[in-house]
Amino acid sequence: MASFQQRTQGCGELRLAHAGQTVTLNGWVHRLRDMGSLVFADMRDGTGLCQLFLDPANHPIPEIKTETCISVTGQVVERADKDKNPNSPTGEVDVVVETMQILNPSKPLPFPLNDETQMQSVNEELRIKHRYLDIRRPSMRKKLALRAAAVRKIRAYLDARDFIETETPIFTKSTPEGARDYLVPYRLEPGLFYALPQSPQQYKQLLMVAGLERYYQIAKCFRDESQRSDRQPEFTQLDLEMSFVTQEDILRLIEGMTVSVINELIDEFELDKDHLAPFPRLTYDESMARYGCDKPDLRFELELFDLSEAVQGTEFGVFKGTLENGGKVRGVRYPGGASLSRKEVGELEDFAKSFGAKGMASIAITSEGQGSENEFTSVSGLVAKAGFLKFLQPEQIEAILSTSGAQAGDLLCIIADEYMAGNNVLYRLRHEIGERTGLRDPRKLAFCFVMDFPLVEWNPDEKRWDSMHHPFTSPKAEDMDLIETDPGAIRADCYDIVCNGTEWASGSIRIHRPDVQARVFRLLGIDDARQKERFGHILEAFSFGAPPHGGIAPGIDRMIMFLLNEENIREVIAFPKIGLGQDPMMEAPSEIDEVQWKEMGLRRN
RNA sequence: GCGGGUGUAGCUCAGUGGUUAGAGCACCGGCCUGUCACGCCGGGGGCCGCGGGUUCAAGUCCCGUCAUCCGCGCCA
Hints:
This protein has 605 residues and is of the alpha+beta class.
């Protein structure tokens, strides 16, 4: 038998229809309004809030404070019309308390969890330290509920399509390629370590060798790298792999799942979001040329333009030098930017410089000139204004205006640099401009596929080719012969899903033939001995009739962030880590006992 | 590893180098029978992150340091 009276209803469920019934509620005191002998208390449980009416005529006023845990029995009564609260779903009734059992009192709270406005600015470390209180807030509960629903729908979608959800080990083997591993010392032989998986990559491929054909897992992944507002040392991916499929099969499956799951969530949680449409597809090269990055924010246009042709032959030193060295002169429109002050343009240039730009040329576009000598009036009537225009021929300026699609009010932001360095500046400028002009619409979820990544990229520091995705990614069949002749030109069967300028999912068709894998390893400078040491198990597995296979892995945390417009990943995780990977609630990482040091065969320093 | 922001009461924040460092909320006491951010009266509460320095005098200026947030590098 329970030591308390168990509830008959949820607080948030009470309606006028319950009037006259005697109900029992379990929950917490959310807020108190003490009118002297008469007391009103908002009571909260997982279903919502209702108002308790405490009158000493019915029951002595008990010693309750905010967040006292209580069990209450009383009659639901309709309020007088003038006392009804239209702002509350339960605002037409009161529960007239007949008995109240105090299940557990509460100390004064570290932050006002019954005040959403104030909670917005409460120190986040304090919230995480007392996360068990923070999560009592209905708004936090809702985030976790949305997350649970997302995972539930994903499971339902994949289960209905014959996927087999399979767990893979958390203690596994270190693979120095990629991110830094979290390591776990092996007690029985000091000097040996497990690593926590950066992803279940090899296991899922081995499950394909094992003939599972369709695998998924809601998988924890661990990467010991610097934190960002959208990165945690441990995070969750939907890890997925299929056999006997083409890239197209995987893209269709994951797109279908994403559209279905997200559109259902938007409806079920009444999110202020537009429904998803089919995803546009871009090649890596297109994405770089049009948006300057492999994770474009497609909520708005403002594509980059290339002026290299337009200014060919110019005597303007910065452009001339860049073009002679094989670089590009490219730019992005800033609608409304023509009205920026000289100082503000300078600040925008500083912004560009902070991402490696050597400088930023800018042209203000207006519809009427002011007779200044820096102006140029085009045949279309647009007036361009910039100090360096005097170094350009009229036809070059006309070409700039037409190529850029300049409109009155624009500021053309122009970066002259080596192609990739320029991209790195231009895409950040584009996103900044999108932010400033309000084009990054919070209602929109602009998903797209970015495909056909290069297989490898040159690492100038180490003087070698590195995998762009991971070493098991398959070169496109038609590029296979380039492995030994022109590695930089190899396209991979590799694809990302991007949402609103953030990478969301990454996947590829894998290499399933040992001979191809060996050629790629050779290209990556991983010699036979090292292949055997690091990847012997998977190479051997591939030699037993491994099927063609491929997969993809979208981030669950980020998916919830997109849906809730959260800028911080910690907001969608029940117990997140802060700053340098610490948990201020558990106080982890922590010292260990002397006995444990000894047992693990470890020494300090 | 680097750059920027923040650090003052339990919480959120004010605070020209010059009285005894303040406010709102919270907390404690009192009053209040229809509140719903209840209201009114009163009270307690401070290592001004920490350590140096400049100064007659430092929350305020300088140097260092720690913590945290954001970003860069990093993140197959």
